[in-house]
Amino acid sequence: MFEEFFDLTATPFTNSIPSDKLYMSPIMRETLGRLKFAVSHRMFAVVTSDVGCGKTTTIRKFTNDLDRKNYEILYIANSKLSPSWFYKGMLKQLGVEPKFYRDAASRQLHRELEIIRGVQHRDVVCIVDEAHLLSKETFEEIRFLLNSKMDSENPMSLILVGQNELWDKLKLQSYAAVRQRIDIKCEIPQYDRAETARYIECHLKYAACTREIFTEKAIDEIYRYSAGAARAINKVCLNSLICAAQRKEKLVDDYLVVEVIDGELP
Questions:
Q1: pLDDT tens digits for range 221-235
Q2: Which of 149, 171, 187, 190 could form a cystine bridge with 228, CB 3.0-4.6 A?
Q3: Are residues 61 and 181 in the same domain?
Q4: Distance of CA 154 to CAs 14, 42, 44, 75, 187, Å?
């Protein structure tokens, strides 16, 4: 157990880190601020990034910070759903047995949204993950869903989260009607070298680390391998800690990191 070897109180480079202990980069703070503004005004937002750069982690932090007294959060993870199943997925999360036909399910959803807003005084926030996989038909249905009260207001907040190819798709002329409805766009880039170091430091601090473990040259190699993608940083740091503990080495240097990258990582 490398945690015991390094005197750590938790595992530092995993997805299970509590949202209040995450590394808050300037971009994450900006993205969270934009999303909070979006849901406070029932807007349509799009969040994109390259693979492994923290989209889902950012959304987890965002939803955990929302006051559940004021918001009902729906999370759709299977973005290959047809429009009918898209409606059914939302209705089931609202505790409603959906109608079979799409038009009926659409009317059901609009009624439920009105009840939640008018009676419960709460707003619905629907988050669609892996949205780059959505079909054109489902995108069109999203456009119809947001068309409420003669296009004067959205019935709920909608956040599409996906890889950068999502925005590439939305830039096509055939998606112009959907793109024009987007109120806020957020793009999460990779970390630079300095942010990579701060990310590692933050995660080690979460595990109550009180001394240096990774040398500066080790962090150089971690950055070179990961290109600043959080998932890749986690992978190489975790495997390096395991390897160092097995060898009884208290310091992770660049030679060990390179050996781990070349021998254990794809």
A1: 999 999 999 999 999
A2: 190
A3: yes
A4: 37, 6, 8, 18, 23
